[in-house]
TrEMBL record:
The keyword Magnesium applies. Major role in the synthesis of nucleoside triphosphates other than ATP. The ATP gamma phosphate is transferred to the NDP beta phosphate via a ping-pong mechanism, using a phosphorylated active-site intermediate. Its cofactor is Mg(2+). Gene3D superfamilies: Nucleoside diphosphate kinase-like domain. This is Nucleoside diphosphate kinase. One of its GO terms (cellular component) is cytoplasm. It comes from Nocardioides luti.
Length: 136
């Protein structure tokens, strides 16, 4: 059934000039962009978005990274969009992600892994409310 999912093209994607490449993959798959914004976030937005990770050892450098420059936030819609986006993104660690995925083809890092996609319908609703309150 049709779902919406919250996607981030993280600051590494913008810095590396890969916004078009990554967006093309989502569009070519057949997903529809229903909202998109170029934005630089502060630590409080990072803490909200990554609420489940704020106590983890990897979080302080992750927070520094996601606040380090502009990113592109978007909402994508399509049949089973949550799972489809996660499959396109590939596994978290770019060094281990399968070739053919965004991370597998374009990232060599566990932190600077280019993209974020909501991991469940609950996460998609929670994250959409943070980034695009008018859509929540
Ligand atoms: P994301 O899908 O946005 O969800 C949490 C993010 O934390 C993840 O992508 C990575 O950017 C980062 N991350 C997860 N695990 C680690 C880790 N072990 N070391 C560094 N960064 C991590």
């Amino acid at each position: 059934s049709t779902q919406r999912t919250l996607v981030l093209l993280k600051p590494d994607t913008v810095r590396r000039g890969l916004v078009g490449e990554v967006l093309s993959r989502f569009e070519a798959k057949g997903l529809t962009i229903v909202a998109m914004e170029h934005r630089t976030i502060d630590a409080s937005v990072a803490d909200q978005h990554y609420a489940e990770h704020v106590e983890r050892d990897f979080y302080p450098p992750l927070r520094d990274f996601v606040t380090s420059g502009p990113l592109v936030a978007l909402v994508l819609e399509g049949d089973e969009a949550i799972e489809v986006v996660r499959a396109l993104n590939g596994s978290t660690d770019g060094r281990k992600a399968a070739p053919g995925t965004i991370r597998g083809d374009l990232s060599l890092s566990n932190r600077e892994n280019l993209v974020h996609g909501s991991d469940s319908e609950e996460s998609a609703a929670r994250e959409t409310a943070i980034w695009f309150p008018h859509l929540a």
